[in-house]
Amino acid sequence: MENSLKPPLITLKNLTTGFGHHELFINLELFVRKGDRIALVGRNGSGKSTLLEILAGIREFDIGERTLQSGVSITYLSQNLHLLKEQTAKDYLLETMDRNAAREPHLIAQALSISAILPNNSMVDLSGGERQRLAVAGAIIQNPDVLLLDEPTNHLDINTIEWLEKIVLDFTGAIVVVSHDRQFLNNVSKSVLWLDRGVVQRLDRNYAYFEEWAEKLIRLEADNAVKLDRFIEKETAWSREGISARRKRNQGRMRRLEALRHERRERRVADTMEKLETYTTKNSGRLVLELCNVSKRFGNHSVIKNFSARIMRGNRIGIIGSNGVGKSTLLKILNKQIVPDQGSIRLGSNIDAISFDQNRACLNPEATLWETLCDAGGDQIEVHGSPRHIIGYLQQFLFDSGQARSPVQSLSGGEKNRLILAKFLAKPSNLMILDEPTNDLDLETLDLLQEMLFEYKGTIVLVSHDRDFLDRIVTSTFVFEGDGHIGIYPGGFSDYLHQKKSDSQQRIEAKSRNQRKKSEHDLKQRTLGRLKYAEKRELIVIQEEIKKLEKEISSLNRRLNKEQENSRKLYELSDALGKKMKTLENKETRWLELELIKTNGS
Questions:
Q1: Which residue has the higher pLDDT, 486 or 454?
Q2: Is the same domain home to 255 and 168?
Q3: Residue 337 — φ and ψ, nearest 5°?
Q4: What residue ranges in 474-517 does DSSP mark as E strands?
């Protein structure tokens, strides 16, 4: 409520716009205020990117007005980065940053430092994740009043998404972000704008509450539609059966009936995707895949080293790791598209496998949607062994009948992924191999995909950077841990993190025990003599250092108790406190050693 009293930084009022005869927004109203952290959500094609561009002031609209508070600065980060050939990282920042910011060399240096990119690195040679890191750092370092982010998590690995979360949480301006990553939205948002059938509705709570709220609105809308239909039927009956003179006296009631009929005609019915179903062929053998000491190198780089695993019927395997470590290579080895340098792969019996390609290599951009699904001609597609009319099947995936003859190249990234899903899910299988299936999917389609995979009776092996998706689907996780080593952990991503933390704590405790044993042994050897001159001097100095450390630790504790808002500052203070306490522990251990030698020697 407090934030709603602040004057808007950006105001959109009575805004209507569209493409051709298709209207994206009708009389849309929207406010962005200081301190807003808004998740902008809606189905693919609902106009989220268009709305961000209108907010940024780089897209025209048909009707309405856009008002900007005086002096407000806006930075917009598109999901499609504009790259020039032979452009360096420094050149990219100079071109894309605000002119005033670009004149400040320390800001350029800071953006490069935050993103861990060298100034002369070629943008063409950087990975997608590295480019995105640089773009985000360049946007945030300008410290705009409003930051607009369009799918900033797309194609990022989990480590980079977590880095992005920290950067966004530390940003003090207003943020409007579009993303299909649920956990990212949960972590960074304070409110949600739902773009649904040309209308924006606002929830002033974190994204975690959105789905329950949206379902209530949809149910309420359906109930109101039923009530309206019944009332129109009743009024229509009155108009037909009433005496002519009575109808003439009640022209107001007749006009209201016509207005209600118009309202019903203009009603934008919520599109609903039918439940996606998969058909599992006959059961595979109990053993689906077995890898024994598999290794793969590219030049001098070892991607996979001596990896062994057994994948059994019904397993749901998630594969995670940084971009470029070899996740897709492992999938291609499992799929027999790549031969390992050493080791063996055994495929079980009765395996019917299908693969989902993150690069959409199975789509011909020149072909129509119809031709893509009915490559043999005709108007029927075989779905799990039964014929379905192509139009009806496309509508199940939210394509309208007019799109059936459109070329694939006219589709958005999310629509292409939906088309691949339509082609993919028509085939019966008992093993699915999925490479980044969630990329570019809207949240509703992602929900339905999750539901379908959850009910799938076969075996699933998938690569994903979507933490929420992994937690909902997988039962085991293969983790690329560096230098070609792959660890196997039971459960999803959160389970892996918990186990990793527990293992790390156990290693620290074991190392500490070993260090104590070594210190005790060394101490026994030294207690036979007296303190040397250097040790006498060390004892005096170490006592002063301990006093100083105790004061610094006390100060850090007070600052931690006061700091509640800035997550990066909290992290830095906690990190500093941990280091100081470790140093104090080491100093006290050394002080005890010296005191014991001094006592025994005297």
A1: 486
A2: no
A3: -90, -25
A4: 476-482, 485-490
Tell me what pLDDT residue 283 has: 82
Q: Are 190 and 36 contacting, i.e. CB atoms less than 8 angstroms apart?
A: yes
User: What is the signed CA dihedral for 58, 59, 62, 64, rounded to 10 degrees?
Assistant: -40
Same-domain pairing of 393 and 450: yes
223 and 206, same structural domain?
Answer: no
Whose CA is closest to 117, among 98, 95, 90, 97? 90
**Residue 520: inside a domain:** no
Instruction: Report yes or no: 398 and 43 within 8 Å, Cβ to Cβ.
Output: yes
- Provide the residue count of the chain: 602
Q: Look at the block and give the residue holding tokens 């026994």.
A: 524
* Locus of tokens 């800071």: 110
Distance CA 580, CA 582 (A): 5
Residue 329, token pair as written in the block: 């290579």
- Decide if 277 is inside a domain: no
Of 294, 324, 298, 321, whose CA–CA distance to 310 is shortest? 294
C-alpha–C-alpha distance, residues 87 and 125, integer Å = 10
Residue 281 inside a domain? The answer is no
Lowest mean pLDDT among 383-392, 498-507, 537-546: 498-507
Does residue 271 form part of some domain?
A: no
Query: 3-class DSSP state for residue 455?
Result: helix
Residues 446, 344 within the same domain = yes
Give residue for tokens 């009530």: 227
Q: What is the pLDDT of residue 527?
A: 46
Q: Would you state the structure tokens that stand for residue 223, as one six-digit string?
A: 């109930």
Residue 423 identity: K
Assess whether 434 and 317 both reside in one domain. yes
In whole angstroms, give the CA distance from residue 71 to residue 54: 18
Element (H, E) at 23: strand 22-33
Note the pLDDT of residue 528. 43
Range of the domain at 176: 3-212
Query: Is the Cβ–Cβ distance between 273 and 398 less than 8 Å?
Result: yes
Number of domains comprising the chain:
4
State how far the alpha carbon of 373 is from the alpha carbons of 320, 377, 436, 485, 573, in Å. Answer: 31, 9, 21, 40, 57
